[in-house]
Amino acid sequence: MEAYRGSLDAASHAFRGRTRRNATMFGPPGHLYVYFTYGMHFCANVVCWPEGEAGAVLLRALAPLSGLEEMAEGRFGVGAAARVPGSGQVVLPARKRETAPFRPQDLCSGPAKLCQAFGLDRAADGYDLISGHEGVALLDDGTAPPAPPAVGARIGLAAGCATRDEPWRWWIPGDLNVSGPRTTR
DNA sequence: CTTTGGATCGTCT
DNA sequence: GACGATCCAAAGG
User: Fold this and answer.
1) Any atom of strand C under 7 A from CB of A21?
2) How large is the average pLDDT for residues A110-137?
3) pLDDT at A95
4) CA-based nearest residue to A83, from A105, A65, A101, A64
5) Which of residues 18-57 of A touch strand B (CB under 7 A)?
6) How far, in Å, are A71, A80, A86, A117, A137 from residue A89 at the CA level?
7) Rounded to whole angstroms, how far apart are CA atoms A86 and A120?
8) Within 7 Å: CB of A111 and strand C?
9) Distance (Å, rounded) from C-alpha A163 to C-alpha A96?
10) What is the pTM of this model?
């Protein structure tokens, strides 16, 4: 995950103030900020700072624990669930990545991948993750956080971005689902 | 293994 | 009108 620090952070969508796109980030914490990028991808954040301050955390990766068949469908299309081990007949797909062996770490190992796996798009922008009323909730399953977590610079920021090298990215050391470099550098 | 380019369009300048 | 909090596959070494 990566922290984006609103008006204090040149890399944040909220750096230059409120717009139609980033409005959710200026709202109350505990909501989902989903944005569209590169003409084809969605990425999801959890709003963290108080209303009006636009701090959020980008979800760069997740560990798929259940619902792997549904995630495979979201990622690779109808029929892909058959590739999940234990689900039955293997289909013969057109795309190369569908001919490769199924790997759970291909489902959520990236900010746009996890949105695809979870079916999150612009309709999910603003979801209340605390109430879960829209069908997506943020819960504590009791798993302890890594001690210590790995820390490093964020991914994909433009050269010349003032906050480019700030160590605001955290991940679980050694986890196969982590997207981007898995070593601190 | 690393590098490169294409896809594709909403958003903000 | 330029570019992006990306992903994938093909080409190159």
Assistant:
1) no
2) 98
3) 56
4) A101
5) 19-22, 36, 38-40
6) 17, 10, 9, 21, 33
7) 26
8) yes
9) 37
10) 0.93
